[in-house]
């Protein structure tokens, strides 16, 4: 019981002190960079802890760069460094809540040390789990972009072949799916807005490629820019050839997603099988007993 009281008091005091020290220092920073991060109510304390311990500076270069690359892909066009700091703050927030929750449950359980042990184990696993989740989100975003890309390229090729300029073809194809939640069309909508505001076509295409962070989009924009001044015929042929390759990649993504869906069903099926087996076997075992 004493260990649980001391543990909870220490964690609680640290969290309270961090909140007092933070005050309203990070209010504006949190509002500008909150995105879809969780447990934002804990962000001031976690951000203060990051600054006090200089965690951003102490992170090894390779790990930090790897994390920033994932965040750059997921939150394209945003302040990568700020979003990285918010992501680390989210990890610390969950860890602190886990430790504090473990201490409280230990007190409610009459000082049971198992709750403290579980809290420490979960606190150690959480950073890995959140980084893994970030990787999954990044992969899903890339897959969603590649999945829609062949259809978009085919439509642009068709319009260019019909005599439309490539810029107008891109604008028309994007406008047709302006409300599509796919990240490709979100980035294309931003590109179209810039084109309508008079920005140069080449610059807009380069920025689109950077924001998407997908090799296939880079290939598409490079193909468009290389053939932009040569005329519709050559561009249409180049886009059709690229579209064929992209359709194959779309098929591969569909196959991968199908396999993933099948593997996710295995565990529930095993549980159902065990439950049915118990229901059938239990009466027989009672009779034999």
TrEMBL record:
Q: Which residues form the Type II secretion system protein GspF domain?
A: 152-283
Q: Name one GO cellular component term.
A: plasma membrane
Q: Where are the transmembrane segments?
A: 6-23, 87-109, 115-131, 265-285
Its placement in the membrane is given as: Multi-pass membrane protein
Q: Which UniProt keywords are listed? A: Cell membrane, Membrane, Transmembrane, Transmembrane helix
PANTHER family reported in the protein's UniProt record: INTEGRAL MEMBRANE PROTEIN-RELATED, PILUS ASSEMBLE PROTEIN
Q: What is this protein called?
A: Type II secretion system F family protein
